[in-house]
Every structure is written in structure tokens, then in C-alpha cells.
Amino acid sequence: MSTQPLVLVADDEQRITKLVSMALSDEGFRVVTASGGEEALVKAEEIRPDIVLLDIVMPDMDGIEVMRQLRERRSVPVILLTAKGSASDKAKGLDLGADDYVAKPFHPDELAARVRAVLRRASGTASTSGAVKFDDVEIDLERRIVTRNGELVELSRTEWLLLQHLAANAGKVVLHTELLTKVWGPEYRDDLQYLRVWISRVRRKLGSKPGDPGRIKTFQGIGYLLDVSESSDGHDGHEGPDRREGPDGRPAGSRDFAPAE
After folding, report:
1. How many CA atoms, within 13 angstroms, populate the side-chain half-sphere of residue 176?
2. By three-state DSSP, how is residue 191 classified?
3. Is 77 inside a domain boundary?
4. Per-residue confidence in pLDDT tens, the chain, 261 aa
5. In this structure, are residues 136 and 148 in contact, taking their beta carbons and an 8 Å threshold?
6. Domain encompassing residue 57
């Protein structure tokens, strides 16, 4: 599964969605398009994009209403695509929580730069913090690549999102609820056992042996911390073994929902 950012673009003008798709694909993004607001909401639920680009004026549902409904379901960055000169729409969109806006017509390079900047802000990663390194592991936050001893580590999208958020806050405790909300959405903020299973998977990908937390430290009842200090003893407040996983990788008895992959 690719960890490149997934972008959802909604615009009723096919030439615009085609232009945006080509421009962002050339910059390494994965792009899914929708021809209207209702379709955008359906696809956002299906693919759980990293960022959404919305045209403000669409016939079935305007972009601001789509943004409002998206934000009710999960926290996702939104860039509004606006007609040149629609200052009132821009102001309204930003007041209601849009992360940025781009006026049409736009230059493809500018659009890609805006998308990257919003994704950096959303992940808590400053533009200067390109990589996090410890032991034989390097996490490249800009390129979304993880290597161990120079070899590429294959991560699912869910594993990357967890590791990305921990790496962007390296040396700080990240709350359970924050991780669950960021990766799966606010409705899953209390699914702690599910989080434990996925943290265990990420630990193994980073080279930890079963039962050893490695660099991802547990703060029992609070959250997790990615320890990137030069010396790490590998011990922490262990939460006990993870509950048995079902055949699909979810903890047995957990709520029936599929994570974004």
C-alpha cells in the first residue's frame, strides 16, 4: 500500500478535476476525483483522504456545506477552490475552518505547493523537519518513506499514519484519543485495544521483538511516545500482551469497522 498522500478533488467542471489530477499526480500525490458534493462525501467515507480540495460552487451541494459535513465525521484538511474575485466566499470558507483557498485559474505548481503546506501543518510537521532518525531507522516525513538499515520498510497506510504522527511529535507523549481521532476519526477515540494492536504492528516493522516496546514507549492510561534519544533502554510501562487478533488483523471482539488502508 502506497503511503503517498491521498487527495480527493471535487469539482463539477471535468476540465478542472482533470487539470488538478494531472498536476498533483506529477508531484507524487495519489488523486481521486468527484463531480459533485454528494459524490465527494461518499468517496471521502470510502477512501478517507489525507486532504480534500473542494470547489465552492457546485450544483448539488456547495463546497462549504460539503466541508461542514466532512468535519462532522472526521478531521481532514480542506482547501477551497474559488472563482477569482469571490472574496466573500473565501472569507466565509476560512471563517468556517478551511485550511486554505486557491483562486481559479491557478498554476499547477502553486496548487501542489499549497497542498504540501497544508499537509505539513495538519501533521504538525514543520517544513524544515524532513527526517527523524534513531538506531538504524530513518523516517522521512516529507517523502513518506521509512527505511531500516538502508532498506525500505513496507507499511500499510494505517501503520504510516500512526508512525507519522508519533514521529512528528518525537520525544512527546501523544494521547491515545489523539492518535485514534487522527487515524480513524473521532467516533473511534475510545477504541484503545484496537490502537494497541496497530502500535504492536508498527513496533515490529521498526524491528522490535515480540513483547519489547522498542522505541515506541507506553505511558499507561495516557498514550505513546517515540523515543529518538541517543540512548534507549527499551523498557517502559508495559500494558501487557495484546488481546488475540482475529483473522482480519483486528482484535477479537472489537467493533466491526475497517480501518483506512
Report:
1. 17
2. coil
3. yes
4. 456 889 999 999 999 999 999 999 998 899 999 999 999 999 998 888 989 999 988 989 989 899 989 888 877 899 998 875 566 666 666 777 788 888 888 888 888 888 988 887 776 544 335 789 999 999 988 778 899 999 999 998 889 989 998 998 888 898 898 888 888 877 777 889 889 999 999 999 999 988 899 999 999 889 999 999 876 554 444 444 443 333 333 433 344 333 333
5. yes
6. 6-123
Same domain, 113 and 55: yes
Q: In Å, how far from its chain's centre is CA 90? A: 25
Whether residue 248 lies inside any domain: the answer is: no
Boundary of a domain, candidates 123, 158, 183: 123
User: Is 240 within the bounds of a domain?
Assistant: no
| Global pTM exceeds 0.70 | no
Q: Are residues 43 and 66 in the same domain?
A: yes
Contacts of 71 (CB under 8 A, 6+ apart): 78, 97
List the CATH number of the domain containing 18: 3.40.50.2300
